Amino acid sequence: MKVFQRLLALCFCVCISLIGNAQAQNEHTKTQNLKETNFYKIQKEFNSKWSGRSPVKGQGFNVFRRWEALMEPRVFPSGDITLPSTTYANYKEWEKENLSVTTRSAPNNWTGLGPFAKPSGYDAGVGRVDFLKFDPNNSQIMYVGTPDGGLWKSINGGASWSTNSDFLSVIGCSDLVINPKNTQEMYLATGNWEDDRRSMGVLKSTNGGSSWSTTSLSWNATDNYKIRRMIMDPDHPDTMMVATDGGIFRTTDGWASSPDNSGLDGNYNLYDVKYKPGDFSTVYASGVSGSEVFWKSTDYGETWSAVTSGLPAGSGVSRIIIGTSADETDYVYLLAGDTNNGYKGLYRSTNSGTSFSTRSTTPNILHSNSNAVGSGGQANHDLAIAVAPDNANKVTIGGINQWRSTDGGSTWNLFTYWLGIDTDHPGEGSLVPYTHADIQDIQYLPGSSSTIFATSDGGIYKSTDDGASFTDISNNLSIAQQTNVAHHAINPVLIVTGLQDIGTIKKSGNNYSVINGGDGESAFIDRTAENVIVTSNPYGAHDISYNGGVDKDPMTGIPASSEFYAPISQDPSNADIMYAGGRTALYKNIDFYNHPNTWTTAGTPPGSGSILEYVVAPSNNQVIYTIKADAIGKTTNGGGAWTNVTGTLPLGSALPTQITVSNVDADKAWITFSGYSASNKVWRTTDGGATWSNISSGLPNLPFNTVVHVNDTPNDVIYVGGDVGVYQYENAAANRGPGSWTLFNSGLPNAKVTDLEIFYPDTGAPKLRASTYGRGTWETEIQGAIVPVELVSFTGEAFESENILNWETAIEINLDEYQIERSSDGDHFQMIGKVIPGNLEFDNQYQFLDRDRTDGISFYRLKIIDLDGSFEYSNTVVLYHKGRDHGIKVSPNPATSFVMVTGLSEENSNAVLRDQMGRIIAKQSVINNSQILLSYLPNGTYYISFSNQMGGEETTLKIIKI
């Protein structure tokens, strides 16, 4: 979603990165032909259709629910599904009215974190690719269009890709044509036909896609058109046609003057248009209009005639597309989906579309199964056809899988399979090539009958042996449609994020791997043990991994969610506690590491329906806020009792999306709203929800999805992410007046921001991270709390009778005091003393003696407090004191691969392995003579703590790994 400048020559092609899936809107045949259909009507018809039925893979149930979950907040309460298409117009209007926006943009420079390549792991992918086009004069130059990641170009046959559309109005697009007489001239069909983002018309580029200008085919969102296909007459490149849900639009002067719509007008809902090979006076169109599904023109598209001979009635067709071949130019194939989006049939004409015959109606090759058994499919989402250029009887179709016929569509063989192995016939040992599920486009390399490409919801695949094998050539396409981002508390390069169609991926350094499949959703990394990762799939299907995502176990003991998205997170102050929303009640696990399937309710917050989001206050984990569609709930005793704190919040005008709370004051909270209620975007409370104030003034009228508070900032800095951009707010921003909103977009693609998180390193500036729907994860440095101390060092040393802490500072201005905090587990800290600055024997050098330390390891940190109450923490110091001998031994020590444990007094004990920084590396249950593996660790000093299963006295031993 890129910058829309209609008057300056850039017209926006789509409006927002709204999740979209075509069949969502078109689940009902009658519905798909009504452009004015309301969201709630679509929802009602879908629910009626599925009443009493069990969802089956590949029948569009989950795709609709995903679309529903992401569309409903944006169109509430009216249900007007054209609203998302106003996003960019609203954004540009806001930008025009805020002429100082460039001077008000805070200093920032976003950089991408990827994924920059296909992640490793089974069924991986980079994201959805809708179409593939070749330069007419150089087939090594290729273009692909993505629904939310822009237009991408390769100049080396797909070995690498690049985009320059991040800051233009070209992000979602439905087709591209290129002038063969001047390949720098190209035309882009805007919008995305399968989403509910309407087209803004056709854009033109004269420099190979570097910049775009509007043409005479230019619409407003309220015109309510979708472009499904665009074609160009190669002999007369100024002659083009687009197939839309409002008929055919045609130009003979390169869209310079008003286009003609008199042939097939607004009464025709069209899906495809193609020229007859070698004869561009003959044009074919397919779609659904009453009983008609196919039309033919013999005068370059000026007039059209319906063809019904041998074809099904439109009432039984959901979508229908065209295939032709240069081998037999009179052949025309029509591939049709039925009203359940399964296989209606393949129909062929051998007389240039004058009449048709049925080639096959079974088996259901649009089903997900490899044996094509079962009803339904996803014809309104994935449907493609290619006829071999040298053999008009060789037909390849794409649905969830690919199938091929060598007899003109009478019989079919599985061509590629989304699971890779034909599991429905294991006895036969049948193997077929793998491509990611949901085929969007199939194209032969120009001039070749053996090199074939398929685009899908996972990327681009290429075969050079006519389909015997396929290779993923998505390479560096960074087009991930991400729903969230979560990082480890300490490791700066460890991130997990959920991706639509791909699953949950982990970024470890520069490596990306899929650690869970499906549609990735809410996830987190245990901040005390980076190998422990919790992930989610739709409807609250949560999994836990203890080895960094290599293996996972389903988390049971908690009911399924009725919501497509169900949040789950770790308590901010007690690492053993986990919460899960997405249900009517808030669920809690108080020992999730050892007992991930033991859940209890933390009460039922006010409001109807499920908990859409929640937040636990970092300063007091007994305070929890929850979001339901019609109420904001709050508890101050961990769920023992709940109160309704909705107050004056505009829940009847907009749906709330996310809530955050100050890390030092549980009474300060901020909440964002979706939708297009112009004055309701962000609200704030400073008294725990007793009253709310609207701080939306200064924001554009677009949906807002996420909010995050910057720790320890005196001015309570927050960042919000919307369907366009990130914005910064300070309660009393210096030089900008109170309540200032600042655009925070420098370098960030204009993609929808779905989640914001802040990583706080031990040293240096905090990093704001954003997940985007279409361009992956991004990061920028921000300014954290401003405290008047430059800490040079904070160290410690353990002696027989005491632990000594030393620190040195370089700058001290307006400093109030240092508080020394100690912890036995690195998680729960308590203050053990204070040091007042000044009156030092040596300038800026401090010392503190702890004579009350316990045996084992102790964690120390400084809380550095300013006179205004703001503060920050130092690094953590870990000191070890052996203490008395409890009889537990580990050997050998030093060790290379493992240590053996002896001397345990109980049959079972818990062992926790930490590094020198006190970070938990691993946890496991041990018995006498059991081994703790060390081979995977770098050389250095580590600590192993043992405690019995009842959580009794702990013993800690130091080991050396060599």
Structure, described:
The chain has 962 residues and is mainly beta. The chain is built from 5 helices and 69 strands. The two termini are 52 Å apart. InterPro entries: Secre_tail (IPR026444), WD40/YVTN_repeat-like_dom_sf (IPR015943), Xyloglucanase_GH74 (IPR052025). This is T9SS type A sorting domain-containing protein. Residues 1-24 form the signal peptide. Keywords: Signal.
Q: What low-confidence regions span 5 or more consecutive residues with pLDDT below 50?
A: 1-34, 100-104, 422-429, 733-738
Tell me the distance between the termini.
52 Å
Please identify the structural class as seen in this structure: mainly beta
Total of DSSP H or I helical runs spanning 4+ residues: 5
Radius of gyration: 30 Å
Number of strands: 69
Q: What is the overall shape? A: elongated
User: What helical percentage do the residues reach?
Assistant: under 10%
Which band does the percent of strand residues land in?
35-45%
| Residue-averaged pLDDT | 87
* Biggest sheet descriptor: 5 strands, antiparallel
What tags apply to this protein structure?
four-stranded antiparallel β-sheet, Secre_tail, mainly beta, five-stranded antiparallel β-sheet, 962 residues, disordered N terminus
